[in-house]
Amino acid sequence: MVFSVSERTFNQEVLASPVPVLVYFEAPWCALCRVIHPLLLQFQAQCGDEIKLAGVNADQNFKLSNTYRLKSLPTLLLIEKGIVKQRLEGFCGRDDLRQALEAIQLTYNITNKTDTGIKTAELEYNNV
């Protein structure tokens, strides 16, 4: 599930989060944002509680858009302990995003396991 954050809740929900947060800057008029949304939901399902997915409406949160110097939408930022670890922007479609999300999963060694029908994710951060 993508939870919405705003300028008012960003510090608490993203910067102070004990787990990494993939912040998804989007806008209602952005067609590519709508196209990639299902992939982001799938990524969140695979990661479970190990990486949170937060959505930010770039039009309604102009201060955040300026702070993170958005050049295009959608833009994704992987933020861990208040620091931007990865920036994903300028991808051309679903395949580009899929590859980027797979790279994030590899970075954090997130593997899906099925244990009596329950899907879990395991996080093991590599200091590379």
TrEMBL record:
InterPro entries reported in the protein's UniProt record: Thioredoxin-like_sf (IPR036249), Thioredoxin_domain (IPR013766)
Signal sequence interval, chain numbering: none
Organism taxonomic ancestry: Bacteria, Bacillati, Cyanobacteriota, Cyanophyceae, Nostocales
Annotated ranges, domain Thioredoxin: 1-106
Keyword set, alphabetical order: Redox-active center
Family: Belongs to the thioredoxin family.
CDD domains, per database record: TRX_family
Superkingdom of the source species: Bacteria
Protein name: Thioredoxin family protein
Keyword Signal carried by entry: no
PANTHER family linked to this entry: GEO12009P1
Pfam family, one: Thioredoxin
Gene3D superfamilies in the record: Glutaredoxin (3.40.30.10)
